[in-house]
């Protein structure tokens, strides 16, 4: 049974994954993206030392408070210190159960996966959601081989938790991944690299809502 103190995972979900190198003012860009419809922000700045990461997490907490969930990539300690809503674990990060022991039952724990088996394992360990990809070619990981939306469909067959598609997602590809079974999408450069984070987020949000309604009509 779901813990009543844990935040509800927003569906359909538009997750913004941060990369401060793509913009001059990350807190401002995050606030703009949230205004455009991003309802979950993952702070992912792996090169920052703990003190600087915490300061940035606190700034993003202020930018998202009451408007979007905030997760910190990999660093459960920083997530707790910043009052974030949970942690997102990379594929080689902490086991879900270990992160849960650190965070307690009232915060979200998600994981990045690249195969159906990894997704099933994450769910069995207690993950609240998984991010799956890369689905399409992506500037963030140019050497990664895109798996296509068929990967989303294969993962969806094995898990019941929300599945987010990542990798080369655009408003034009949202409907394809949602039809394959995604509960939302995660993006980086599609918002932060656009120069217009609010407008870019709004375009993705519109495509998500239309696709989600279409999926509901078919089920």
What would you say this structure looks like, in words?
- Helices cover 42% and strands 16% of the residues.
- An eight-stranded parallel β-barrel has the order 1-2-3-4-5-6-7-8, surrounded by seven helices.
- The model has no long low-confidence stretch (mean pLDDT 94).
- The protein has helices spanning 26-36, 50-64, 76-82, 96-103, 116-125, 150-158, 174-179, 189-192, 197-218, and strands spanning 13-17, 40-43, 69-73, 86-89, 108-113, 129-132, 163-166, 184-187.
- The protein is globular.
- Helix 5 (116-125) links the parallel strand 5 (108-113) and strand 6.
- It is α/β, with parallel strands linked by helices and 219 residues long.
Largest sheet: 8 strands, parallel, barrel
Oligomer: single chain
Helices and strands: which structural class?
A: alpha/beta
Shape: globular
Descriptive key words:
eight-stranded parallel barrel, 219 residues, 9 helices, alpha/beta, 42% helix
């Amino acid at each position: 049974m779901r813990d009543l103190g844990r935040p509800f995972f927003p569906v359909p979900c538009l997750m913004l994954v941060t990369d401060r190198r793509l913009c001059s003012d990350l807190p401002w860009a995050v606030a703009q993206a949230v205004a455009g419809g991003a309802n979950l922000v993952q702070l992912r700045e792996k090169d920052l030392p703990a003190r600087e990461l915490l300061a940035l997490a606190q700034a993003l907490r202020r930018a998202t408070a009451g408007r979007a969930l905030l997760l910190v990539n990999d660093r459960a300690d920083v997530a707790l210190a910043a009052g974030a809503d949970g942690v997102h674990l990379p594929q080689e990060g902490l086991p879900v159960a270990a992160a849960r022991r650190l965070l307690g039952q009232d915060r979200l724990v998600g994981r990045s996966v690249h195969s159906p088996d990894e997704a099933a394992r994450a769910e069995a360990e207690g993950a609240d959601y998984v991010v799956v990809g890369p689905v399409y070619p992506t500037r963030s990981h140019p050497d990664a081989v895109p798996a296509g939306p068929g990967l989303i469909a294969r993962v969806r067959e094995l898990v019941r938790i929300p599945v987010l598609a990542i990798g080369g997602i655009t408003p034009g590809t949202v409907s394809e991944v949602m039809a394959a079974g995604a509960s939302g999408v995660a993006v980086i450069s599609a918002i932060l690299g656009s120069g217009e984070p609010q407008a870019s987020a709004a375009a993705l949000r519109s495509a998500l809502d239309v696709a989600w309604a279409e999926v509901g009509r078919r089920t």
